[in-house]
Amino acid sequence: MDHPGFDTDVVIAGAGPTGLMLACELRLAGADVVIADRLAGRTGESRAGGIHARTLEVLDQRGVLDRFLAAGEVQSVGHFSGLWLDFDDSDSRHPRPLMILQSAIELLLEEWAAELGARVRWSSEVTGIRQDGAGVTVELGTGDAARATLRARYAVGCDGGRSTVRKLAGIPFPGSPATMTALLGDVELPDLPEEYIFMRRCPGGHFSVIALEPGWHRVITSEYDHVAECEGPATFERLRESLIRLAGTDWGMRGPRWVSRFGDAARQASRYREGRVLLAGDAAHIHYPAGGQGLNVGVQDAVNLGWKLGLVVRGRAPESLLDSYHAERHPVAERVLHNTRAQSALARPGAQTDALRDVIGSLIAFDDVNRYLCGMITGLDIRYPADGHHPLVGRRVPDADLKTPDGTSRVHELLRAARPVLLDLRGGAAVVRVADGWTDRVDIVEARSEDDRWPVPGAGEIPAPAALLIRPDGHVAWATGGGRPHRSELRTALATWFGPAAQR
Questions:
Q1: Other Cβ atoms within 10 Å of 436 Cβ, number
Q2: Measured between alpha carbons, how far is 126 from 190 in angstroms, rounded to an integer?
Q3: Which residues are CB-contacts of 221 (< 8 A; sequence separation ≥ 6)?
């Protein structure tokens, strides 16, 4: 620590995937971080079950993807409300979803966070937050009537849909209430005649049975026009009764490891920042878990916020940089709420919905429609608001093959250190000279692209740029296609995203 009176730079509430990923990003950015979680430790509950292409790319950018691939299984297809989607190999090196349980994701992220020096305080529930012009004081209940406080520059709520941090910060959470009840459980099904059943629709709703590992299945039942909050706790018996109502049998269901519930409530924080308190993941947005987008959106929230907050706490960029977090991520979650509402409606029982599904299914057979939905579900097509006319600006950078003076590489490998990269693909010394005042924060790489054209979801194939400025999260802040390199635009992008030039 370089400032007296602080226990840490950032306190993160919640040691789930979003909080852990944020802790890793902050440590890579040089910030000190403490994660506080109300639980006594890992519960082992399986929870979410997959990672999409853009999140796989992010993990690849940081050099830890192999850990996750070794623990999961790549799936050949995805879906939109149970209608199958085919992922295009040209859109990403990792276009297909990875089936891996959240419990395994959390263990891998926690291991990585510990390697980077992040600290987790279990049995530490946030009970109060006071902020002033210099920092925040976070009050913690430690489970044994004792109280503790942590003084930090910033606090981030990654503490789920019922976020205490959001409530303490006074941030509204508007949206639409649940219209259906869904139960899920990890159970044994000795009499199941099939390996899996995916979204079989019935007069009252739909159900799925998915093989998790030898001997264990996840059962999911969804019944419409029921509201979970009014029906008591989720229990094994309620899950069994729901499956019998929908499927006519329970296939000998027994031995539950975990039972929970969810609904199609859709809510989003009206703002992601209140002074020195920020929100990420489910604390900022909840929705129907169609297409497995929730965990991925939370992790990508963390990757967007981490480098920005790291620059600010280290005094390298002004606090106003944090406003771009809400400006960029709020519309992303808003679109997720929109598409999951559509998926919930498309799953409803009834003849009208049957007809609608037939029409949508026939449209998905068209490549453009399939690609549009794949880009939306995976997050590969996200384009943040940005100044600049080049089609790459605001988008995530393709992982193009490169030739460098040291050999071969890939664009995403340049982001291992989570630092900005000015990638010069045409040997333009003028471009490099513009960045002289930022070399303490920006890595300058000269290389050649192996391909003349780069595939960009949402934009098609475009000519490889002459030079581009890549943010630590993999999104492009500036690019030029050749000719005069618009040095003033590059200088503006450097100052906007990475603070003023160093005085020499």
A1: 11
A2: 43
A3: 182, 183, 184, 205, 207, 239, 242, 243, 246
**Residue 110 sits in which domain range?**
8-49+101-174+267-347
DSSP state of 396: B
Compute the radius of gyration of the chain from its Cα atoms: 23
Six token digits for residue 425:
């693909």
Amino acid at the residue 20: L
CATH number, domain containing residue 232: 3.30.70.2450
Phi, psi angle pair for 446, to nearest 5°: -105, 130
Structure tokens at 489: 């635009």
pLDDT, tens only, 182-230 = 999 999 999 999 888 999 999 999 999 998 888 889 999 999 886 655 5
Phi, psi of 153 (to 5 degrees): -75, -35
Strand, coil or helix: 21: helix
Residue 276, amino acid:
R
- Is there a contact between 498 and 420 (Cβ–Cβ < 8 Å)? yes
pTM over 0.90: yes
Amino acid at 394: G
Closest CA to 172 of 329, 326, 285: 285
Cα separation of 490 and 435, whole Å?
8
Same domain membership, residue 34 and residue 124:
yes
Of the candidates 125, 53, 149, 145, the residue with the CA atom closest to the CA atom of residue 93: 53
Owner of token pair 């026009």 = 225
- As given in the structure block, the two tokens for residue 234 are 């989720």
Burial of 325 (0-12, 13-18, 19+ CB in 10 A): buried
Same domain? For 206 and 340 the reply is no
Q: What CATH number did the domain enclosing 311 receive?
A: 3.50.50.60
Indicate the pLDDT class of residue 1, thresholds 50, 70 and 90. Answer: very low
